[in-house]
């Protein structure tokens, strides 16, 4: 980053994505004449019921909270079933994680709302369940991909089970685990839009309002920001993966 030339900055996907995201979030009100021209039949061509800044922050908070929960639960469970004392639960864990992703988030929301009520809480549960599978699968794959000879060498140096896990297994498995986390977070960025159906304020709100009111301008405005946010997060993970690869090869 520090050694990047101005030309590199202009062609960097992360920087371009961040510029586009900030421009859309802060500059959406200034695009009202454009949407009015594109959709002359609309009385309200710009979504103004909520601030796009507020919606973006709420969307990111929901994605961040659900992704963090999925990462903590998924990596913890993945570590547990790769230990000798937890291997018998691997089949059960994989079944539960698979069910969490095959069960539609809308169905989870429908079941959670009568119990929890409207708001971000049922969405947090649905998104956490939906993001578990890639985290669990990649954690298990990454840990099992560590060469047995490396583990034997670590034990030969006198390392205990905890030291082997945190100083050898997790660092070597980090790129694979990160790939699963990346998939989970990107999935949640898009899926979080449906949380607005149960009262959570996200970037899905203008999309849902637009769909219900046949207002394509609202749908485009929400979708553009969701897409830009997904590009920024994906590019950020790409940068982090590159750093991890260089660090592990150093």
**Approximately what portion of the residues adopt beta-strand conformation?**
under 5%
User: Could you report the average pLDDT, rounded to the nearest whole number?
Assistant: 86
Helix/strand class? mainly alpha
The percent range for helix content is over 70%
Strand count: 0
Cα-based radius of gyration, to the nearest Å: 22 Å
Overall body shape: elongated
The helix/strand order is: HHHHHHHHHHH
How far the N terminus sits from the C terminus, by CA atoms, comes to: 18 Å
> Mind summarizing the main beta sheet?
none
Contiguous low-pLDDT stretches (5 residues minimum) are none
Number of helices: 11
Topology of helices and strands:
Blueprint: H1 6-11, H2 13-27, H3 32-38, H4 52-81, H5 90-102, H6 105-116, H7 120-144, H8 148-156, H9 161-191, H10 204-212, H11 216-249
Helix pairs in contact: 2-11, 4-7, 4-9, 5-7, 6-7, 7-9, 8-9, 9-11, 10-11
């Amino acid at each position: 980053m520090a050694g990047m030339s101005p030309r590199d900055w202009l062609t960097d996907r992360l920087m371009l994505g961040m510029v586009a995201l900030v421009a859309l979030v802060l500059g959406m009100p200034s695009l009202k004449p454009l949407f009015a021209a594109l959709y002359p039949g609309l009385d309200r061509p710009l979504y103004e019921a909520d601030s796009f800044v507020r919606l973006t922050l709420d969307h990111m908070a929901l994605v961040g909270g659900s992704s963090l929960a999925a990462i903590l639960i998924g990596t913890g469970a993945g570590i547990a079933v790769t230990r000798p004392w937890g291997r018998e639960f691997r089949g059960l864990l994989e079944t539960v994680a698979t069910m969490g992703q095959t069960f539609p988030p809308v169905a989870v929301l429908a079941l959670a709302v009568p119990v929890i009520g409207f708001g971000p809480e049922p969405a947090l549960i649905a998104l956490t369940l939906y993001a578990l599978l890639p985290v669990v699968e990649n954690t298990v794959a990454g840990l099992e991909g560590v060469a047995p000879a490396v583990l034997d060498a670590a034990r030969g140096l006198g390392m205990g089970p905890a030291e082997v896990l945190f100083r050898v297994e997790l660092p070597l498995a980090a790129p694979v685990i990160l790939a699963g986390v990346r998939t989970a977070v990107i999935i949640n960025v898009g899926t979080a839009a449906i949380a607005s159906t149960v009262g959570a304020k996200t970037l899905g709100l203008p999309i849902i309002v637009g769909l219900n009111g046949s207002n394509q301008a609202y749908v485009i405005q929400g979708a553009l920001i969701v897409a830009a946010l997904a590009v920024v997060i994906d590019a950020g993970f790409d940068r982090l993966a590159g750093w991890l690869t260089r660090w592990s090869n150093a």
